[in-house]
Design brief:
- The protein is mainly alpha-helical and 106 residues long.
- Helix content is 79%, strand content 0%.
- It contains 6 helices and no strands.
- Helix 1 runs antiparallel to helix 2, helix 2 runs antiparallel to helix 3 and helix 2 runs parallel beside helix 4.
- The longest helix has 23 residues.
- The two termini are 18 Å apart.
- The model has no long low-confidence stretch (mean pLDDT 85).
Length: 106
């Protein structure tokens, strides 16, 4: 959740977008874990989680009148992309941070 908030700030989001990203990512993470516990299809689980993150981000962002909605919407679903964590894991492994790399791969 903190990674998505920091990514929103990195993408140029204002403080309102960062707060919205925090709540939107938290709600989508809860949705993802709920669907996973109930043995949903993985493709449907990813789709519904991204949909929930986008819709909650849109409604919270429109209520709070954020200036950078694209950064907020992009960052709230970035945790669903597995390549970013694996890329950081390879980077940690090659920089000899073995424990951190194994943590990211697991």
């Amino acid at each position: 959740v903190a990674q998505c908030t920091a990514t929103c700030r990195f993408f140029g989001g204002d403080i309102t977008s960062c707060i919205t990203t925090l709540f939107s990512t938290s709600i989508s993470f809860l949705c993802f874990s709920f669907l996973g516990k109930n043995n949903f299809n993985l493709l449907l689980q990813e789709f519904l989680t991204a949909f929930v993150a986008g819709v909650t981000g849109f409604f919270i962002g429109s209520y709070l009148h954020t200036q950078t909605p694209l950064a907020m919407l992009s960052a709230s679903v970035i945790w669903l992309v597995p390549g970013l964590v694996m890329m950081n894991g390879f980077s940690d492994f090659f920089h000899n941070f073995i424990v951190s790399a194994l943590n990211r791969f697991a």
